Amino acid sequence: MRVHVVSDVHGRTDVLARAGEGADALLCLGDLILFVDYDDHSRGIFAELFGAEQAARLITLRTARRFGEAREMSAALWASLGGDPRDHIERAVRRQYEEIFAAMPVPAYLTHGNVDLPRLWPDYLREGHRVLDGETVEIGGLRFGFVGGGLRTPYRTPNEIDDEEFARKVEAVGEVDVLCCHIPPAVPELLYDVVARRFERGSEATLEAIRRTQPRYALFGHVHQPLSPRTRIGRTECLNVGHFRGRGTPFVLEW
After folding, report:
1. By CB neighbour count within 10 A (0-12 exposed, 13-18 middle, 19+ buried), where does 196 fall?
2. For 104-130, how does the pLDDT look when each residue is reduced to its tens digit (9 = 90+)?
3. Distance between CA atoms of 183 and 14, rounded to whole angstroms?
4. Phi first, then psi: what are they for 28, rounded to 5°?
5. Where does the record place the Calcineurin-like phosphoesterase domain (predicted)?
6. Which domains does the chain have, with CATH numbers?
7. Quick check: 17 and 105 in contact, CB under 8 A?
8. Peptide bond into 85 cis (omega under 30)
9. What pTM, to 2 d.p., does this model score?
10. Inter-CA distances, 212 with 2, 106, 130, 225, Å
11. Is the dihedral of CA 93, 98, 104, 108 positive or negative?
12. 3-class DSSP state for residue 143?
């Protein structure tokens, strides 16, 4: 069996359609939309609405961890559009989802990322797409468990949840051969982004589950340029499957 795994697609539809070629199935670990692009400030929903210069300003404030100023700046820009900011965001997200799910190969098993809007996914899923979150599925004789979303951060991305809720989903998955999450377990070298020069949040509940149940693999994304893309916890190989928007190629898992 061979599966291809992607995470952090962030609008990269040009190569997504080919990501399942040669595989029995595609696994997608979330973050489908592109809200703001830290490499190309002209891309993403924020730049689409307010321009590259304002996107660059937002990124500068966030990188400096001046979150209060970033929120004030954003609030003023959203107010300039009139109406409810959530309506503007949803329209832009829907445009991206329409293109992304049209390009998503089948069969595909998906879970949500921290920047996704899960309530919109049912409108765009095609036959052969299956969404799992706190759930398991058997693929080629192995049991795969999926846990989507992220934990609370100062960035306030749309699909951040409380630690307790995240832990309940991890517990619901139970013992599996392959644990698939959007965010990594709480291991420092897996969480530090060497380009953004910051630690992302990881899950203590996932780390404890790995130590206790020892799956063959723990797969995740979220950290785009990790200090370490892999480590071992007991017999479990913990693997960052890579920033698909940047790499354009899937991670390959064979057994």
Report:
1. middle
2. 999 999 999 999 999 999 999 999 999
3. 24
4. -120, 120
5. 1-226
6. 2-33+106-254 (3.60.21.10)
7. yes
8. no
9. 0.94
10. 27, 33, 28, 28
11. positive
12. strand
Distance separating alpha carbons of residues 81 and 13, to the nearest angstrom: 28
Q: Are 5 and 239 in contact (CB under 8 A)?
A: no
Q: Which two tokens stand for residue 20?
A: 């399942």
Question: In terms of Cα–Cα distance, which of 246, 254, 193 is closest to 6?
Answer: 246
Question: 3-class SS at 246?
Answer: helix
In this prediction, residue 59 has a pLDDT band, given cuts at 50, 70 and 90, of: very high
Which amino acid makes up residue 214? Q
87 contacts: CB under 8 Å, gap ≥ 6: none
**In the predicted structure, residue 33 carries a pLDDT above the cut 90:** yes
| DSSP states of 81-107 | H-S-HHHHHHHHHHHHHHHHHHH--SS
**Residue 44 DSSP class:** S
| 71, containing H or E segment | helix 67-81
| Cβ proximity of 27 and 5 under 8 Å | yes
Instruction: Match 């209060």 to its residue by tokens.
Output: 68
Q: Is 113 strand, coil or helix? A: coil
Q: Which residues contact 160 (CB under 8 A, 6 or more apart)?
A: 114, 149, 150, 151, 152, 153
Listed residue (137, 113, 142) closest to 215, CA to CA: 142
**DSSP structure string for 154-207:** TT--TTEE-HHHHHHHHHHH-S-SEEEESSPBS-HHHHEETTTTEEPP-BHHHH
Give the length of the chain.
255
